[in-house]
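The instructor's notes for this session suggest beginning with a concrete chain rather than abstract definitions. Hand out the sequence below and ask the class to guess, before any prediction is shown, which regions might be ordered.
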Amino acid sequence: MFFNDIHIRIRFVLLVVIIILILVIGKVFYIQVFSYNKLAKITEDLWSRKMTINAPRGDIVDRNGEILATSIVTTTIYVVPNQIKDKEKVSKDIAEILNCDYEDVYKYVSKKSSMEIIRKGMDLNSETADKIEKLGYDGVYLVVDSKRYYPYGEALSHIIGFVGSDNQGLSGLELTYDEYLKGTNGELKYYSDGKGNKLEIPDSYVAPSKGMTLELTLDIEIIKAVDNELKNAMDKYDSEHALSIVMNPKTGEILAMGSKPSFDPANYQNFSEEVINRNLPIWMTYEPGSTFKIITLASSIEEKTVDLFKDHFTDTGAINVDGSTIHCWKHGGHGNQTYLEVVENSCNPGFVSLGQKLGVNKLMSYIKKFGFGDKTGIDLNGEGNGILFKEEKMGPVELATTAFGQGISVTPIQQVAAVGAAINGGYLNTPYVVKSIIDDNSKSIVFANKQQVKRQVISPETSATVRFALESVVSNGSGKNAYIENYRVGGKTGTAQKVSDGKYMVGNYILSFIGFLPANDPEAIVYVAVDNPKGVTQYGGTVSAPIARNIMLSLIETLKIKEASGGMLKEYSYLDVRYYQLPDVVGMSKSEATKALKEFKVKYSGSGDKVVYMSPAPNTFQSVETTITLLLN
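After discussion, reveal the predicted structure:
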């Protein structure tokens, strides 16, 4: 009845139409106002094509700002096949410029994909890129990219590591600090229809943002010295491995670290995984040998179980421990000696007696306090733990061998950290290589590292006695080959027999030396180990001590270590070139000066009778082969 009235029906239809119009208008309004950005982005994504531009990774620099790793600008060719009309000509011209096969280029140009990177067109120099750009072909894009560059190659490969083809860190600091180094990628965006034809919409470009700078504690001059010495050791002795660590014992800062064999980080694919993945100074574990005696020495002095100067030990060449005979390296032994001489002579039976005086519990307690058995916590990946005897399973023989560094397994970095504590006043530091992380955009320091003291292991007084004893080792004992005239050097040699399948290998040793200078106030500690050198008498004093000496000579120059007085004079053998301290003869008569300089060759300049100047300077140590020039008034 209601809908029979035509006017009512017209009004109803009109109302429905109005409602529909309102809904349509409302929907359009909603789309235009509220959904515009979302829909525009969807549309843009359908039209747009993106080329990712890798961000330049942040620089890695040494403590003085010298670049150790950086990113250099390169250019990469991208092609959009659907936009290239004459594929044959484009392929021919590009192949000619790249000096590669036409077919290699054509297979990329003729693909049906939306975008391709020509493999031969990666990492182009500016000259080649300019030639490509002048062609002006549609569908051929040149994108500025970056490539990692390592100016010192193999010298730092295990510390810095390397990056993959996608500019992502894969090992070393490049991996550990990838989050800070990688930066933010940019992009080049162009627009095309469904068939790939370019639309008349301007390209957009978002510049990449460079990563942060990693500042290290390393010094490249010391690194170069270490690398050179390790290369020489490998060449001279045909050894299996050679490694070295240089650390500031006061702070734990690593000044240099290296090992051989090493690899080229720019061409890491050409090297075995074994070489690439093993950073020997922190990964390799082995019996330390006599360098470990420093720990037994420090523990004994701290516990007052021995007086180095008053107590004596008689070495007959061997000592019997629970039915087992432990020999001294010197056939027939060293006879009656003070315990300072036991240290100088690196006498195994003497150190067995020191271990026995301490006992299992005290010796093992100090070994653990010095950090052995645990990772040092150095900020590099791949660190080893080492292996210690379990106290409950240690008998008299295990105690004896542990006292002189046999039967346990340690890493080089553990030894450096522990000996650093023994000579720096007694404080065990966490070694580290990253000094700070700097955001170059904001010029702010994101992270700053500092000395981390784990604990005090021995007293400063004990540490001073240890330094004295180890200086005596270099002046009067097995470490003479590390002696440096006019400088105070302390240290200890090590000769450790290698183990294979649970048995000691015959004639196969790791020869080591750990030294420091100045001995009275150490600024650097140097560890050197050479694995199985050939064609030489296998003692740490004959192989590793001279290498460490050469590194310390470089340290003197780099760290500007001053000459020191009050050191111990070296005891010379008949084979050594002797050194004497120059007396000050300025002001003496010619005859008096000649008498005072009787050990040296003397050359006079002038005709007077009184010395007014001398060269070299007085009070320095000079060899007897040195000619002393005296200027007369």
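Then share the key points. Residues 6-34 form the longest helix (29 residues). Residues 2-34 form one domain.
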